[in-house]
Hints:
33% of the residues lie in helices and 28% in strands. With 288 residues, it is α/β, with parallel strands linked by helices.
Amino acid sequence: MENILSLQNVTKSYKNFTLDNLSFHVPRGMIFGMIGENGAGKTTTIQSILDIIKTDSGKIEIFGKDHCKDAKEIKQKLGVVMDGLNQNPFLKCSDLDKIMKKIYLNWDSQCFFSYLEKFKLPRDKKIKELSKGMNVKLNFAAALSYHPQLLLLDEATSGLDPVMRDDILEILQEFVTDEQNSVLMSTHITSDLDKIADYILFLHQGKLLFVKSRDAIESYGVLHCTEDFFRALSPEDYDAFLKEEFSYKVLVPDRYAMKTHFDGLLLDRATIEDIMLFYVKGVRTCQD
Length: 288
């Protein structure tokens, strides 16, 4: 399977933080969700990919090309939506069409105005008069209207209401249906990733904890048990645990196998948020 994005041993050091030897690959046709607490390195990763910040070492390739040397060619096929990144506030929404068609060879005016209509964005309203949510929708309209092959999203849906977020998620799923396009999506709204992500990439304190497929994520469960039952478990049966006052909560990677071996367990399906909380706040077995 061809990779649309590859990072190999990427490192970037600051005074109090290091993105440490990060390597992962995004194949074509996939939605990758990137999770991690504040300061984990998600934005640093995306800014490194975009060459907004210079890395100390490592290699980044987009469409099989060097992200620095071939930046001009790459940006023609790379869509970006970032929280807080807005267009010129004194322009009208419709003015973006005149500007973008001079920048992007594949700019599609019909597609852009179709998105304005779909997102209920007034053509003649100045950008400075738009709400945060409307600005986000305008950024998506612009990013999608030159038919990019890779979308980089950094907290891009944080200003949207649940209905519009759901609309955006549907658009992202449509975006990858031809198996040529991909999405790398960093977000704190992990419920969005529960719905659409093919893979989850988990960063913690600048290090990659894991990259897991949707099937692997959906197999996780949260076991509620007594201390005696927990002590009888093998460390190979779980990834992490949280000790409560009178019981234990245990993150198990294969809840189906656990149910097969033990009847009558209180075992819930784990969400991406559950997994993140266990890995950050729980005691881990360090199997990864």
